[in-house]
Fold this sequence. Notes:
The protein is α+β, with helices and mostly antiparallel strands and 95 residues long. It contains one helix and five strands; from the N terminus they run βββββα.
Amino acid sequence: MKHKTTNKIRLLMRRERTLKICANHLVVPVMKLEANAGSDRSWVYTCPADLSEGAPTKELLAIRFANSDDAKAFKAQFEAAQKANEAILAAEGKK
């Protein structure tokens, strides 16, 4: 999701059946996507301030996709969002 005013990009994810928010955070440069258990269709990363439960908390998050193509597309979008947010934060002096 891209904020209409600041243009900062965040990740918002809901659980499939309940639609409960399970991840809600800015996509920042310090996050590193790593293959989860050697799988080509899942990623794991640490988020310094996830807001899905209200107050910001450091979380280890994992995301799994139906196939490796979707996982690769997610990684590309995630990394593009990191670069975009890095430029915005640098311009604000908050890098």
